[in-house]
Amino acid sequence: MAEGPAVLSGPDFESGVPLSSVADDELLLGHAGGEPVLLGRSGGELFAVGASCSHYGASMAEGLLVDGTVRCPAHHAAFSIRTGEAVRAPALNPIPCWTVEQRDGRVFVTGKQERSAALRQVRAEDAAAHPSPW
Ligand code: FES
Q1: Which of 4, 30, 53, 98 would bridge 48 by S-S if both were Cys, CB 3.0 to 4.6 A apart?
Q2: How many Å lie between the centroid of ligand 1 and the Cα of residue 2?
């Protein structure tokens, strides 16, 4: 499938948006680094992931936020909001994860995370939350 330049809409997250514009359990479409990005909050935790599905490129701006995943409205693939990993078919490939910072009542998307760094961070957090009994 041929890909053209991404159509950008919504706020420039690199310039920041008011924290109050990011409601819990909702997705806000904007852009960062020339790419469409979804900014959201789940359980009080801010996150930012790519807004284009890795399956056939559908916009996930109208997707759902369910149990720590963003669900694509086209064919219902699901992606982790913490790592971007595809956790439900038909998508097999991840979507990008972005770093989010909060300063002075504003939220900024500051850069795309390396995939391995995002996975290491989540594994460390999971290990701390669920220590091994051994
Ligand atoms: S385009 Fe998203 S699941 Fe098919």
Answers
A1: 98
A2: 16
